[in-house]
From TrEMBL, chain B:
InterPro entries: PASTA_dom. It comes from the Bacteria. Residues 102-115 have a biased composition (Polar residues). Residues 111-176 form the PASTA domain. The chain crosses the membrane at residues 50-72. The keyword Lipid metabolism does not apply. Keywords: Membrane, Transmembrane, Transmembrane helix. Residues 78-116 are annotated as: Disordered. This is PASTA domain-containing protein. The keyword Transmembrane applies. It comes from Mangrovactinospora gilvigrisea.
Length: 171, 178
C-alpha cells in the first residue's frame, strides 16, 4: 500500500525530527527511550501520512504521538516499578559556573522527572514549546483549567526543590 | 500565553518561570538529536503495514494492542553505552536512527550528495551562505547554549558529516542569547 508521498514525508522527517526528539528526550529524560519514541512516532506518522499532511499542524500531530508514547512508556515503567531513568541524568557541573546555576538546573530536571507524567507533560509543553494553556488543552484533550492547575501544581513541586535561601524574584 | 493568566501568575513568580524554562531548554540541548533516515522509516512503516494486511483478524488485533511490545523486541534491546547505540547494522530491525551517521554508513545511494560541513559556532550568515553554496535549503530556530554566543550556530540537523542530497532542508539552531 503506497500511502506516503515520499518527498513530503522525507521533508517532514528532516524538518521536525530534531524538535520531536527534544520533546521525547525532555519527557523521558532518557536518550535511548527518546530515540525509540522518535522512531516509533515517525513510523506512525509515515503510515498515516496522508492524514497527517492534511492536518492543520502536522508537527503538532506528531508531537501528540510523542506525548502519548511517552505516557504509555511511563505507565509501563510504573507498572514494573522500573526506575532506571534517573540514573542517566548525570550531573555535569560546569566549573566555569560560579553561581551554582548548573547544579540548580540539574536539581530542577530531576524534580521534573519525578513529576507524574501528566503534570510533567504540561510543564514540558509549556516551557519547552511555549504552548499556551489552550493549545496544551487541545493537544491533551483536557480542559484549559485542568492545564492551568497541572502547570501550577507542577511548578509548586519544582519550586520546592529550589534552595529556600535562594532569593525569589530579584536576584 | 499562560503568563497572562492571573490565576496562574499568582502561584508563581518570574524567577521560577525563567529558571524552569532555562533548565528545560538546557537539558534538551544537552543531547543532540539522532540523524534519521526517512527511507528507513518508510521501509519500517511498509513492513508493518504489510504484516498487518497479511495476517488474520485475530492476529491483527494482537499486533495492534502489542505494537509497542513488537517494537520492543526489535528496538528496545539493551544498548550498553550511548556510543554503541549507533550500530545500526547489527540491530535486527534496521532501525532508522543512527546516532552517529557518517558518509560511509549513510552511503550516498542516490546519485550526487554533498557532505554537511560543521557549522557550530559559525555566524548565522556564514552558515547560511555555506548551505546556499551547497544547494541546501534551511530553516532556523532559536536555541540557547552557554558556549555559543548569540547569533551563532549551536547545531545543525542533520548533523555535520551526513551525506545529503542537494535541495534538502537543513535545520539550524541559532543561539538567541549572548
Amino acid at each position: 500500500m503506497e500511502d506516503s508521498s515520499p518527498a513530503g514525508f522525507d521533508g517532514f522527517v528532516v524538518q521536525h525530527s530534531a524538535a520531536l526528539f527534544r520533546t521525547a528526550y525532555v519527557l523521558t529524560g532518557n536518550q535511548h527511550a527518546a530515540e525509540d519514541l522518535l522512531q516509533e512516532t515517525l513510523v506512525r506518522v509515515c503510515r498515516h501520512w496522508r492524514k497527517v499532511r492534511r492536518a492543520d499542524a502536522p508537527e503538532a500531530y506528531a508531537r501528540r504521538i510523542v506525548v502519548n508514547l511517552a505516557n504509555d512508556r511511563w505507565r509501563r515503567l510504573v507498572r514494573t516499578a522500573e526506575t532506571g531513568d534517573l540514573a542517566e541524568i548525570e550531573r555535569r557541573p560546569d566549573p566555569r559556573d560560579a553561581y551554582g546555576a548548573v547544579d540548580l538546573r540539574a536539581e530542577l530536571i530531576q524534580a521534573l522527572h519525578r513529576l507524574p507524567m501528566g503534570m510533567r507533560t504540561v510543564v514540558v509543553l509549556h516551557f519547552l514549546h511555549d504552548m499556551d494553556d489552550a493549545q496544551i488543552a487541545q493537544m491533551l484533550g483536557i480542559s484549559a483549567s485542568a492545564v492551568r492547575s497541572q502547570l501550577a501544581r507542577g511548578l509548586e513541586k519544582l519550586r520546592a526543590t529550589l534552595p529556600s535561601s535562594l532569593p525569589e524574584g530579584a536576584q | 500565553m499562560t503568563e497572562q493568566n492571573p490565576m496562574f501568575e499568582n502561584h508563581t513568580d518570574g524567577y521560577n518561570h525563567h529558571e524552569v524554562r532555562a533548565a528545560v531548554n538546557q537539558f534538551a540541548n544537552r543531547t543532540p538529536a539522532p540523524s534519521v533516515d526517512p527511507s528507513r522509516i518508510r521501509r519500517a512503516a511498509r513492513r508493518r503495514s504489510a504484516g498487518r494486511a497479511g495476517i488474520a483478524a485475530a492476529a491483527v488485533a494482537l499486533i495492534a494492542s502489542g505494537s509497542a511490545l513488537a517494537w520492543a523486541g526489535a528496538d528496545r534491546t539493551e544498548r550498553p553505552a550511548p556510543a554503541a547505540a549507533t550500530v545500526a547494522s547489527t540491530r535486527p530491525s534496521q532501525p532508522a536512527l543512527d546516532a552517529k551517521p557518517s558518509a560511509t554508513t549513510a552511503g550516498p545511494q542516490h546519485g550526487s550528495t554533498v557532505t554537511l560541513p560543521p557549522l557550530r559556532n559559525q555566524l548565522r550568515a556564514d552558515a547560511e551562505h555555506q548551505l546556499d553554496k551547497l544547494g541546501l535549503r534551511h530553516t532556523v530556530s532559536d536555541g540557547s547554549d552557554r558556549n555559543v554566543a548569540a547569533g551563532r550556530v549551536i547545531s545543525s540537523y542533520p548533523r555535520p558529516g551526513t551525506a545529503i542530497r542537494p535541495g534538502t532542508t537543513i535545520h539550524l539552531v541559532v543561539s538567541s542569547r549572548g
